[in-house]
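Chapter review. Work through the record for Germin-like protein before attempting the end-of-chapter questions.
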Amino acid sequence: MAVFFILMFSLILSSSYAAVQDFCVADYRAPSGPAGYSCRRPETVTVNDFVYSGLGVAGNTSNIFRAANTPASAAEFPGVNGLGISMSRVDLAAGGVVPLHIHPGANEVLLVAQGTLVAGFISSDRNTVYLKTINSGDIMVFPQGLLHFQVNVGNATPVLAFASYSSPRPGLQIVDYALFQSNFPTQLIARTTFLGIPEISRLKAVFGSTN
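Structure tokens for Germin-like protein:
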């Protein structure tokens, strides 16, 4: 009887091991869903699916924020699909700012590679602001779903930082775009934010809303 149980236990272990999937390289030809992209067949996967060179190039900071975010999420980097991780490169020119935003699907760890930032996030329970000046070599964590921001305070020095996320699809929603680039009616923005209609109209013109 003991031998029978040992054999059965070994069979279960070997079956479980066989069922393990090492990776799930994204199949961009198939539709994606809440769980991510479908997996490519292993025989079609190459080493290039696990290497991404996009973060070696500086982003274009010639915009209103003087900032650029270059993502390496599952949509750009097929090898991270299903692994629970992703990254991005953050470039801020002098005076640049990453405005208030959230990542609804991930925690973030930001590593400053060059320059000086004032960075912070706002807690959801007491609206406490956690604010810190961080320099090259420093890291700061931003909990999932909380409003956070970064501002280049290094005078004429550009900032280079790298963000790591706890999801291959962290998501991104920027407050300015959500309010002033969407079809959110001006009257309702005024009622819900207490901003004046002239200022809302000005910001909608800045951010390109057609509403």
